[in-house]
Write a structure and sequence with these properties.
GO terms for molecular function: lyase activity. This is Hydroxymethylglutaryl-CoA lyase. The chain is 41% helix and 18% strand. The chain is α/β, with parallel strands linked by helices and 282 residues long.
């Protein structure tokens, strides 16, 4: 079964105008009715860095989780953020962005890769004590624009280190939309075979015309976990390309149906969520 991870947090976080807390909550509440495996709903990071997410705790208080099977994921960038997130029983997953690029790690979390790896281990221990699961995103997972070293072997080395500290879910993030289908397939095939006990996910950014090829490559390699956002909103500002955004959930669904891949959503509730997305991101 394909796991669909809907990412309103990623879609919203870069918007310059603050979205009212009640509107955020109403949108996420509708997403909770669709049947997504997980909702990446918010983040516990510095409000100076990501002002759009400064109300994550308030949004959480307004969510109706009683009739939803979806799990909640919150992004954190340090142990302080993890401490804040772990207060809430409603949160199932913490997500940490670990970069393969030294330059991007410094820009994104103000840490070196070595410091970030130490933070991952600390947060992993904290999460296990609280019965939560840490999802580690390998950002710049398919290359970077900074000239920092990159290779599939480098990726495998990171996965091995994460495996050593007990990480069970790793998502390869195509942060700037640079990956081609062949590299996507190679990374997933090699790592899924080498680490069968780890769940590997795809957090792909793409131009619309390249989306189907990228998703099919990940599927062919055995990936069963996909991040996406309705209408393809969001993406990394460093891509410097308005056409490179998150994989659009509706487009991902079409590819999965074309490839006869099993997944579960309520189409009626999904259509309602699409209507609200047009208002939220207008």
């Amino acid at each position: 079964m394909i796991k669909l991870i809907e990412c309103p947090r990623d879609a919203m976080q870069g918007l310059p105008d603050f979205i009212d807390t009640a509107i955020k909550a109403a949108y996420i509440n509708q997403l909770l009715q669709v049947g997504f495996d997980t909702i990446d709903f918010g983040s516990f990071v510095s409000p100076k860095a990501i002002p759009q997410m400064r109300d994550t705790a308030d949004v959480l208080d307004l969510l109706d989780l009683f009739e939803s099977k979806s799990k909640l994921l919150a992004i954190i960038a340090n142990t302080r953020g993890a401490e804040d997130a772990l207060v809430f029983e409603q949160i199932d997953y913490l997500g940490f962005p670990l970069s393969l690029s030294e330059t991007f790690q410094q820009r994104n979390t103000n840490k070196s890769i070595q410091e970030a790896l130490q933070t991952v281990e600390e947060i992993q221990n904290m999460a296990e004590i609280k019965g939560k699961t840490l999802v580690t995103y390998l950002s710049m997972g398919f290359g970077n624009p900074y000239g920092d070293s990159y290779s599939p072997e480098l990726v495998a080395g990171f996965v091995e280190k994460l495996d050593g500290i007990g990480i069970k879910i790793i998502s390869f993030a195509d942060t700037v939309g640079s990956a081609d289908a062949s590299l996507i397939q190679e990374l997933f095939e090699v790592n899924i075979q080498a680490f069968p006990h780890i769940e590997f996910g795809a957090h792909l950014h793409s131009k619309p015309a390249e989306l189907e090829l990228k998703v099919k490559a990940a599927l062919k390699a055995g990936c069963t976990r996909f991040d996406a956002a309705l209408k393809g909103y969001g993406g990394c500002p460093m891509a410097n390309d308005d056409l490179v955004g998150n994989i659009a959930t509706e487009s991902l669904i079409k590819v999965l149906e074309k490839c006869s891949q099993p997944f579960e959503i309520n189409k009626t509730e999904f259509n309602e969520a699409m209507k609200i997305a047009n208002v939220v991101f207008a």
